[in-house]
Every structure is written in C-alpha cells, then in structure tokens.
Design a protein that fits this description.
Residues 131-158 form a coiled coil. InterPro entries: Beta-barrel_RND_2, MdtA-like_BSH, RND_pump_MFP, YknX-like_C. Pfam families: Beta-barrel_RND_2, BSH_RND, YknX_C. Residues 340-408 form the YknX-like C-terminal permuted SH3-like domain. Mean pLDDT is 81; it is low at 42-50, 329-333 and 413-419. The chain is 30% helix and 34% strand. The protein has 419 residues and is of the alpha+beta class. It is built from five helices and 25 strands. The protein has helices spanning 4-11, 25-49, 118-160, 166-205, 411-418; strands spanning 55-60, 62-64, 71-81, 84-87, 93-98, 105-106, 111-115, 208-210, 215-220, 227-228, 238-239, 243-246, 251-258, 270-275, 282-295, 300-307, 319-325, 337-341, 346-348, 351-359, 364-370, 372-377, 380-385, 392-395, 406-409. The protein folds into four domains: 55-66 and 334-418, Beta Barrel (conserved putative lor/sdh protein from methanococcus maripaludis s2 fold), CATH 2.40.420.20; 71-82 and 249-325, Efflux pump adaptor protein, beta barrel domain (Elongation Factor Tu (Ef-tu), domain 3, Beta Barrel), CATH 2.40.30; 87-115 and 207-246, OB fold (Dihydrolipoamide Acetyltransferase, E2P), CATH 2.40.50; 118-205. The protein is rod-shaped and about 205 Å long. Helix 3 runs antiparallel to helix 4.
Length: 419
C-alpha cells in the first residue's frame, strides 16, 4: 500500500528525462476547422452576391416625330421601273453582232445589236434598179412626146391650109395625147419605185436594233448566230428579244396597303422608304397616286410612291418598307416620340412598362420604366413618354425580371444594338 510520501514522489517532475514527442492531432484539427470556416464564408459570399443574371436580347429605341412628322402607317412593297422594255427587232433575222452587256449604260439611239442584212441588201438593190428603170422610161416617153407635139403642131398649120387631111392631123393629136398619158404613168411608176426604195431602206435599217431610251441593261437575251423574231415564229429556237433596258430615273415604289387603312393615305403625302438591303438608309419621297382598284384576294390597294433621291444602290425588285408620314401642321409641333418592338412592352401590376438596360455587356443592370403607349405600327409600338431614342430595352423580358436586376446581354443582340 502506497503511503502519502510515495504519492508525492510520483507527482514530482523528472527533469532528467527526455522531452515527450509533439502531438500533431491538434494541428490537423485546427486546419480542418479553418478550411470549414473558409468554405462556409465563400458559400455565404456567393449566396450574398447572387447567381449571374439571365441572358437577354435588347433593341435600340428609335426616335420618331422629332420634326413634327409621325408615321401613321407602315407598308411593304418593291422597287419598280415605270420605263422598262425588252428590246427586239422589227423583223425576223439572224443575229450578227450583240453590243450590250449586263450593267452597261446606253443612250437613246445607241446600237444594241445588228442582224444579218443579206436579204435586206438584196431587196434594196432591187428597189434601186426598179427606180432607175422607171426614170429611164420617163426619159424615153419624154423624147417621143416632144416629137409627137412637134408633129401635131406642124400638121395643125398644114391642116388649116388644107394641105393635109383632117384625119392625118387627128391621128397626130391622138399620138401626142397618148404619149402625154404615158409620161404621167411613167412618173407615177417612178414615184412608186422611189417609195419601194424607201421601204427597202427601212428594212435595211430594221436590221440594226437601237436603244429606245437611255437606261441600263439588266438582261442580255441573244447571242450572235441565233434567230430573233418579234412574233417568236420559230418556237423555242427563236429569241423574242435582244435585251432588257431599264430607265433608272423612273424608279419608284409600289406598296400594297390594306383596305382598312387606305383612308389614311393621300396623294402628295410625305413618306420615308427604307430598303431591306440598306435598313439604315431613309429615302424621303411622297405618294404619287393611289391606283383606283383593289385586289380581291389580298384585300389591298396598290399605292405608287416616288423617291426624292436617285442612287445606284436602288435597283428594280428590291424589297422596301414605307412609312407614311402625317403632314406637319403650322401649329405647335408634337413632342418627339419613340418606337420600340411590341415585345419590349410588358404588363406589371396593371401598368405598361419596359426594362431599360444600363451599363455594358460585362456588367449590365435593368431599370423599370413606366411608359405611355401610342399607336401600333406593324410589329412596333409608339411610346409617347418614358423612353428616349438611343436607349436600349429588353425584348421579351422574363416574368421574374425585376427593377435593378443584373443581366447578361446576348452577344448578337449587343452587336446589333451598337451598330
């Protein structure tokens, strides 16, 4: 049994013994606790910061009506030429030479092609020979007539002296009158021959195909060696034209306007035309005329629109979007309004709103704007207040998109909005 002295000796520290080995268990426990704290802190930061915003498409707000003219109607149509012709020859013949190419500018009277003139030359040579023969006949009859007139005059004096019989004198007068009639016939025959020569000359000229007016060649339809005919008598092996020429100064726009909206269109009304190929180019113009007939199948009325600018970029059959503008009144002009896609306007708590994008593509947020809507213009809506030209709005905003939310702008939408 241990005594109290033995117990005290066991509690005494032995300083001569070597130090004990360090215990690393506590170190690993500390590192594990620190890692857990860091992980929890990062998760809390992510939860506080929020997930990346949704990707949205944007559109730029277009300012309209700044000059007092607002669009009352939009329509689509095509560029057409009032003067366009497929040029052909007046006669049937074989093409000898073609002097046109697509895109070439020609003036009125320029030679576009020539036909083989062999037949026309032969016909003209025959007409020349006939005219010369007629003129020779006139000369022969004139010589005979001079002799007959002299004979009749001589016999007239002899008959008055009763030196010759009256029958002989009457025969001389008859010969003279007959030669006078032959001379008239010969001269008329010469006139006919001269007319035939002119016709033969026209036939020779018809072998040359000329431009009827100044313009640009848009199609070349024939080649040397082919047969052309205005009547297409040879079937599929016969060409009916040399080429097609368009007067670019006569270009205008034809649009189809719905019957229910035609009352808004008036002759002389100002318009702005935008080609599908150049959507940023606005061409001013005005309404030329409203064609007084309707298309039963499409329920539309055709409207002719003139272009105030003539440019080489405008070519026939291009697609065009036309905005019909109301005339500016001498009174106070309207405040500028804006035009946005209809899909950018949504309803929030019974109000029409739009989400305006602020910032760049890397760090963008949206602001909720209440808007006052105007007319519906095609796929767009007129905004009377709440938006300004040049701002960007979200197209088809998500239902959970809120004011001040972060968004990611789609690359294609951002590029289109910054063009």
């Amino acid at each position: 049994m241990n005594t109290s002295a033995d117990l005290l000796n066991e509690l005494r520290i032995d300083r001569s013994a070597p130090p004990p080995a360090p215990n690393r268990r506590g170190l690993w426990i500390g590192l594990a606790i620190a890692g857990a704290v860091a992980l929890l802190g990062g998760g809390a930061y992510v939860m506080f910061r929020g997930t990346p915003g949704p990707e949205v498409h944007v559109a730029e707000v277009q300012a309209i009506g700044a000059g007092g003219n607002a669009a009352v109607l939009d329509a689509t149509g095509y560029v057409v030429a009032r003067r366009m012709a497929t040029v052909s020859s007046k006669i049937t013949g074989k093409v000898r030479e073609v002097r046109i190419e697509e895109g070439q500018h020609v003036n009125a009277g320029d030679i576009m092609a020539t036909l083989d003139p062999v037949d026309a030359d032969a016909q003209r040579s025959l007409a020349v020979s006939q005219l010369e023969a007629s003129r020779s006949q006139i000369a022969g009859v004139q010589a005979q007539l001079r002799d007959a007139e002299a004979n009749a005059a001589r016999l007239s004096s002899l008959a008055s002296q009763q030196l010759v019989s009256k029958a002989q004198y009457s025969l001389a007068v008859a010969q003279r009158d007959a030669l006078r009639a032959q001379l008239v016939t010969a001269r008329r025959t010469a006139q006919v021959s001269s007319a035939n020569l002119r016709i033969a000359g026209n036939g020779l000229d018809n072998t040359v195909v000329r431009a009827p007016f100044s313009g640009v060649i848009i199609a070349k339809a024939a080649q040397p060696g082919e047969i052309v005919s205005p009547l297409s008598a040879g079937g599929g092996f016969t060409r009916t034209g040399i080429g097609t020429i368009v007067d670019m100064e006569s270009l205008e726009v034809e649009v189809d306007v719905g019957e229910s909206y035609i009352g808004r269109v008036k002759p002389g009304m100002p318009v702005v035309s935008m080609l599908n190929a150049y959507p940023d180019w606005k061409i001013p113009g005005e309404v030329i005329a409203i064609i007084p007939t309707a298309d039963r199948g499409k329920a539309t009325v055709k409207v002719r629109v003139g272009l105030s600018q003539h440019d080489a970029r405008v070519v026939p059959d291009m697609g065009v979007r036309v905005s019909f503008l109301e005339r500016e009144t001498p009174k106070a002009s309207k405040a500028p309004s804006a035009l946005v896609p209809s899909t950018a306007i949504v309803d929030r708590n019974g109000k029409d709103v739009a989400f305006v994008v602020e910032g760049d593509a890397a760090k963008a947020t949206v602001k909720l704007r209440a808007v006052q809507l105007g007319r519906t213009l095609g796929d767009d809506r007129e905004v009377l207040s709440g938006l300004q030209g040049g701002e960007r709005v979200v197209i088809e905003p998500p239902a959970d998109l809120a004011d001040g939310a972060s968004v990611r702008i789609a690359k294609d939408a951002d590029a289109a909005a910054t063009e």
